[in-house]
Design a protein that fits this description.
Length: 133
């Protein structure tokens, strides 16, 4: 069974990723988190809550950034970066296999804060053959 801290990390992660929870105002989410913490994660202190929240935010930023870096390197075929990293080669293979299903406009909208919008929009012709225009 999860420890109180692990449960609370799971609850907080769900609260920031749940389509339902993210529609609630911040103070409602925070009050619900407090209720859940007091009922199911009693040993988690407010200081730990703050630390967990910071860690989740930093990890979320790292995840988005690394995901986009890996996807961009693979999509652009960054030579040795891709050749020297078997996991990045797999990313390149999967992106190429699924490129027609990747909505670049939607991806650019969701990632513009990471500085990849221009690069993403440059891939607009990704899946097209020369005569498809």
């Amino acid at each position: 069974m999860f420890s109180d801290r692990e449960k609370f990390i799971m609850v907080m992660t769900a609260m920031v990723t749940s389509p339902t929870a993210t529609k609630l105002p911040r103070d409602v989410r925070q009050t619900l988190l407090d209720y859940i913490k007091n009922k199911h994660c009693k040993s988690v202190t407010d200081a730990q809550w703050h630390e967990i929240a910071q860690d989740i935010n930093e990890t979320n930023k790292m995840l988005k950034d690394e995901m986009m870096k890996g996807a961009m390197k693979a999509a652009e075929g960054h030579g040795n970066d891709v050749a020297d990293d078997p996991t990045l080669r797999k990313v390149e293979e999967i992106i190429q296999k699924n490129k027609d299903e990747i909505n670049l406009d939607e991806l650019a909208k969701k990632t513009k804060d990471l500085g990849y919008k221009k690069t993403l929009l440059g891939f607009k012709g990704w899946g097209k053959k020369k005569n498809d225009d």
